[in-house]
Design brief:
Blueprint lengths: L7 H37 L5 H33 L7 H7 L4 H44 L6 E3 L5 E3 L11
Antiparallel strand pairs: 1-2
Helix pairs in contact: 1-2, 1-4, 3-4
Pfam families: FlgN
Organism: Kineosphaera limosa NBRC 100340
InterPro entries: FlgN-like
Length: 172
Amino acid sequence: MSTTAPSDATLTALSGLSAGLWRIQELLELLTYKLEVQHVLIETGRSRWMGRSTREIEVILQEMREAELMRAVDAGPVCDALGLPLDTPLTQIAEAAPAPWNQVLSEHRVALSNATNELSLLSRSNSEMLEASYKAVQETLDRFNHTSEGATYTATGARESRRSHHLFDQKS
């Protein structure tokens, strides 16, 4: 960290980077909300809104990809001003930034890391619940259609039927 006062260009670059990081945090918060809504839909069996929920999540993910590209663009002038390579991680940018920006960027990094961890757990939980729901529906349909006769489970838990289905009667 330099003892000289940062230039206006450096301060503007740091401000731009911080604004981009705020945008990413807002999108992560919105994504968390949408995944929690989806979690409730899965838990309650309200499949009517699953398609819409999935589309809304996809829109947010696209916005996050765009925000991440903008963050990379915003980090360029900061890295230049601080004498860092363009691919420097946020942790190292924060360490090299002048006060109070070093603290601001460190807080962004912690918040982004926490949000990412929360999203990972929520996403995994939703995926597991959807998989369990799919298996339950499939088993119910199999019982309803009487196709479970001769069905067994593989080592992975998938259903395997020993019964073969034919389009034509093969008896002569």
